[in-house]
């Protein structure tokens, strides 16, 4: 059985880091094959993508291993298990602990590799390996980038819920922590154009009282964000009383979910888009989509 190995030779091994407070990326070209990318977004674990310009690997399960370079013999190869290979440009996409494991192997001088049969022949294996040459210096820059990442990313906070105790408008510590992260992000991302804060209650009490209670809850969130440095002119407060429950008020647990304020962030639209403020009748649909 023959084998084809795709790996950057020593004199062509390149690693490049690009980063910001929103994400840190490591890029590694693999000659004649494609590119390996490690991506760490704010608030998330690192992920890995293996892009291929020609997709020579057969669809199915590839073996992930970490081998020593040919000039080292102090350790044996490590096998981490099987990884799904898909057809198309993005041959492999990985989340969870394995991308971190691969980075650790590279740091130790190992060469993570994927092994799988060729799509055109069951008698030929394909090995795609990441070279550790020139990795260490760029990895230091990557670690420096990680230290500056925001605590959360936009997708994690674009629809946020703040819960309240029955009849209360005060923010608990969990709510403050969530709002602190929102404030940090909004102050860092100039593309955030509007923040919609909607107050809600459960169905206990008079309707007019609940409407006033929902107003105070939304204003409580607004005031706290202002104390954390968010500009008041980008915030829009709305209040709905008991009108838009997320779930039916059939139990104390369900009522607790309905006693809330929601915080929705909107970014500046692309030139071809327009901004539309959603009417109150869409509040329930928005929140269900955020769950």
Record keyword descriptors for this entry.
single chain, 291 residues, alpha+beta, five-stranded mixed β-sheet, five-stranded antiparallel β-sheet, 7 helices, elongated
Number of contiguous helices: 7
Overall pLDDT level: 90
Total strands: 14
| Broad shape | elongated
Largest sheet: 5 strands, mixed
Q: Hey, roughly how much beta strand do the residues contain?
A: 25-35%
**Strand order across the largest sheet:** 1-10-9-6-7
Task: Put the structure in a nutshell.
This protein is an alpha+beta fold and 291 residues long. It is built from seven helices and 14 strands.
Describe this structure in words.
This protein has 291 residues and is an alpha+beta fold. Helices cover 27% and strands 33% of the residues. The strands form 3 sheets. The chain has a 5-stranded mixed sheet with strand order 1-10-9-6-7. Strands 2-3-4-5-8 form a 5-stranded antiparallel sheet, covered by helices on one side. β2 (16-19) and β3 form a beta hairpin. The radius of gyration is 25 Å and the shape is elongated. Mean pLDDT is 90; it is low at 273-281.
